[in-house]
UniProtKB/TrEMBL annotation:
This is Cupin domain-containing protein. Residues 6-141 form the DUF985 domain. InterPro entries: Cupin_DUF985, RmlC-like_jellyroll, RmlC_Cupin_sf, YML079W-like. It comes from the Bacteria. Transmembrane segments: none annotated.
Length: 163
């Protein structure tokens, strides 16, 4: 069994709606109410997330900060469109001399997507979300709307959206 399939099987990863594979590994039992959220949220959640070569995590946004942690594989690029319209690219990986980072944060409310650096095979990462992730707070980008809002980033929006 190759390493990617081993991770999927042993870690119990399932397909994610945004692309790739994931498994929730932590959900705090402590809940609070937070401004801008409807109902209580766990204070923090954590997942494993795996992307294979040729796959991508489509542009989406959530209401919480999301910290990414690099575990294994090839560098992962996380593309962030800030609320002011700037495009930022974070390279997750362990080659610090080339500007990669073993962890990074996507601020709440920003559009973001990711993909494995070419010619890589896969990236296994973790994501910690606070306040905790809830699909009520998840919004998948619609390509046409994102292109209308941020035409200056048309190439990456087209590459990291579906339909």
């Amino acid at each position: 069994m190759d390493k990617v399939n081993e991770y999927i099987q042993v870690l119990g990863l399932q397909p994610h709606v945004e692309g790739g594979y994931y498994k929730e590994t932590y959900k705090s039992a402590i809940e609070n109410e937070y401004a801008g959220f409807s109902g209580k949220r766990s204070v923090s959640t954590g997942i494993y997330f795996l992307l294979r070569k040729g796959e991508f995590s489509a542009f989406h946004r959530i209401k919480s900060d999301e910290m990414w942690h690099f575990y294994d594989g090839d560098p992962l690029s996380v593309y962030i469109i800030t609320n002011s319209g700037q495009l930022q690219v974070i390279k997750l990986g362990l080659d610090l001399k080339s500007g990669q980072h073993p962890q990074a944060v996507v601020p709440a409310g920003c559009w973001f997507g990711s993909r494995v650096e070419s010619p890589g095979n896969f990236a296994l990462v973790g994501c910690t979300v606070a306040p905790g992730f809830d699909f009520q707070d998840f919004e998948m980008a619609e390509r046409g709307n994102l292109l209308a809002d941020f035409p200056q980033h048309g190439d990456i929006i087209t590459e990291l959206t579906r339909g």
